[in-house]
Amino acid sequence: MKVVGGSNFFVGVVLLCLILFPICSLAEKKKPLRFGKGGSFKILQVADMHYAHGKTTPCENVFPEQRATCSDLNTTAFLERMIHAEKPDLIVFTGDNIYASDSKDAAKSLDAAFAPAISSNIPWAAVLGNHDQESALSREGVMKHIVKLNNTLSLVNPVEAQVIDGFGNYNLEVGGVEGSSFENKSVLNLYFLDSGDYSTVPSMIPGYGWIKPSQQFWFERTSKRLQRAYTAKPEAQKEPAPGLAYFHIPLPELKSLDKTNFTGVKQEGGIGISSASVNSGFFTTMVSAGDVKAVFNGHDHLNDFCGKLTGIQLCYAGGFGYHAYGLAGWARRARVVEVNLEKMEKGGWGAVNSIKTWKRLDDQHLTAIDSQVLWNKSSAGTP
Fold first, then answer.
1. Half-sphere exposure (CA, 13 Å, Cβ side) for 132?
2. What is the sign of the dihedral through the CA atoms of 260, 263, 267 and 271?
3. What's the CA gap between 71 and 88, in Å, rounded?
4. First-to-last C-alpha distance (Å) of the chain
5. Of residues 10 and 52, more confidently modeled
């Protein structure tokens, strides 16, 4: 068939996208994140949805009178309410998005779990937990399914890393306000890592997985690259742009925090922190990099605290999903992080000035609790 006029260009583009589908698809999804005209950027963290089949999936650890009407749909409703109330700029899912061992079709469970985020048209990102792959879909298969969903910025792995452990290691950059002198700089950097599921050498090291050397090497290189760009002209900055890290399994360093130096609660039984039984050194790696100001994880549903250690805030989100274990009478919850820019003397917005957080409970009023400042520019040197 003969195509005439400008149609040749259109057909050529379509054919190119068909040939190079992964590249075209990625370019379409990776719309740049940016601070709004009000100088803020808000992130909603959702931890441990444990989604399965929707209406037929029973709730865990709720009062007896709630059981007849409680299901995965309560998790969906909570997510929809949170999106409507907070209007986040980005939604981050930090693993155990589905409880795959209870799912007959992991792909359908993933679709249903993320449906409110997809329909909201808000960008979202996800990492995996230790339960996402416990079905017919492998860990790689779960991540490959996620990256095909609408509005996600998730990646299976960084294109520049030829060898890296896990699936779901990537970073996102958040640009300054459009029209400002920071428009072309990433003023906030987000790191996402696959903390694994279970130990790959259980006979020697029991328990959960950890962030491997190959992932730490990628993180270090990425952090250095971003810092070079941020401290270079134009608008060369003396300090690196703040970074936030998201992954599922908590770091062993959380065990050193107690009620005297954290905000929130620690109420898991036993050791209280279900980290890997080996310390892979990733906390030290982040301290050495110098840009990460806060780390956010899930995994332990009954912990929801934030505590500062060597200049980095270590934060739990608290359990979100109703098919996940919880505590009857202790509301499911979500964590919100708001990053605010510095107001310039001559007007307009500059670099990041503060990072704040709070949690909302799934009660009648979506009650906000434990508001705190995680970091601010004026006290940046305080350990």
1. 34
2. negative
3. 25
4. 69
5. 52
Instruction: Give the pair of three-digit tokens for residue 368.
Output: 């906000």
- Of how many residues is the chain composed? 383
Residue written as token pair 């549903």: 301
Q: 112 Cβ partners below 8 Å, 6+ apart?
A: 51, 53, 54, 72, 76
Instruction: Give the pLDDT confidence of 199-231 residue by residue, as tens digits.
Output: 989 989 999 999 999 999 999 999 999 999 999
- Look-up: residue for tokens 């990776």? 30
Q: Which of 12-26, 134-148, 294-308, 312-326 has the lowest mean pLDDT?
A: 12-26
Write the CB contacts of 232 (distance below 8 Å, at least 6 apart in sequence): none
pLDDT in tens, 347-371: 889 999 999 999 999 999 999 999 9
Residue 381 class from Cβ within 10 Å (0-12 exposed, 13-18 middle, 19+ buried)? exposed
Helix H or strand E segment including 142: helix 139-146
Residues sharing a CB contact under 8 Å with residue 2, sequence separation 6 or more, in sequence order? none
Helix (H, G, I), strand (E, B) or coil at 81: helix
| Nearest Cα to Cα of residue 94 among 33, 43, 134 | 43
Task: Give the Cα separation of 319 and 338 in Å (integer).
Answer: 20
Are 278 and 211 spatial neighbours (Cβ–Cβ below 8 Å)? no
pTM of whole model > 0.85?
Answer: yes
* Rounded Cα gap, residues 211 and 225, in angstroms: 20
In a 3-state reduction of DSSP, which class is residue 343?
strand
Q: Say what percent of the chain tops pLDDT 90.
A: 85
The pLDDT tens digits for 241-298 are 999 999 999 999 999 998 889 999 999 987 799 999 999 999 999 999 999 999 999 9
- The residue written with tokens 């998201």 in the block is 246
Q: Quick one: tokens of 247? A: 């992954």
Phi-psi region of 120 (alpha: psi -120 to 50; beta: other; left: phi over 0): alpha
What is the token pair recorded at 123? 């960008």
